[in-house]
Amino acid sequence: MKNIIILETQRLSLREFNLNDSEFIINLVNSPKWLEFIGDKDVKTTEDAINYLENGPIKSYKENGFGLWLVQLKGSNIPIGMCGLVNRETLQHIDIGFAMLPEYLGLGYGFEIASATMSYAKNNLNLDKVIAITDSNNIASIKLLNKIDLYFEKTLNLSENDSVLVFSPLNNKKELNEIDKLTTVFFDLFTNINGKIPDVKKIKDLFIANGMIISNTNGSPKIYNLKQFIIPREKMLKDGTLINFCENEISHKTEIFGNIAHRFSLYQKSGKLNGVDFESIGLKTIQFMKVNNEWKMSSVAWSDEK
Q: According to the model, what pLDDT value does residue 255 have?
């Protein structure tokens, strides 16, 4: 039978299943992770595997133009797993699915082929949205879904005894823009270069009333409420202790769920402290919550490079 290639990556190729893949299917659907997180498909014989392929992936190719495809190593064409797109009656959108034989887990193959499949869905199939479902205990799958920019949306009961987590792409540009602006204002509050006089008290406008700020650079947390944080920093930035100070984000990642959000922020800062020039990088973790339809910070914690 002719192997129809769907796409290729650096190490892998994705092709349509055919009936010659029955032995591989028996191995894959009876592997430990499949049985634990997807369930027993009762595919034990060659006849079972042929029925699975005919009524699953092959049927989907004919009806939808896509389906679950076989993942194989380039060059050797050794089959190692499956990855593809599923059109389920129980879901509003097409979802991505993937599985690997045990000996090929932890080698980056899952991310490599899943990200390529997402690109194929968008650029070749013109699918405007692809989601995913997974078992709540399948931590490896959840981490991979986050890496391909799918994030927890809700819990869904597919049946009375089958509850799954639904992961979707972020679709809240307005919310992200507001959080971006809030974060930019926060970083800029402490700048005192080029004659700028910082107004650290404005931090109160950015936080909820009982907001918390934590420094944990040395592994011994220093915890401040807003008043405790403002007073010493205002003094340092105005009395010459800390001059030419500036800090800004290098990169960031923000996740939003309903009325709460979280941001990891890699940042750099520089200035002159007690007459000594310095420059360093660090990581801030920032929590937000929506209060009266407006985003506010609830806590900021950071650790600087030593």
A: 87
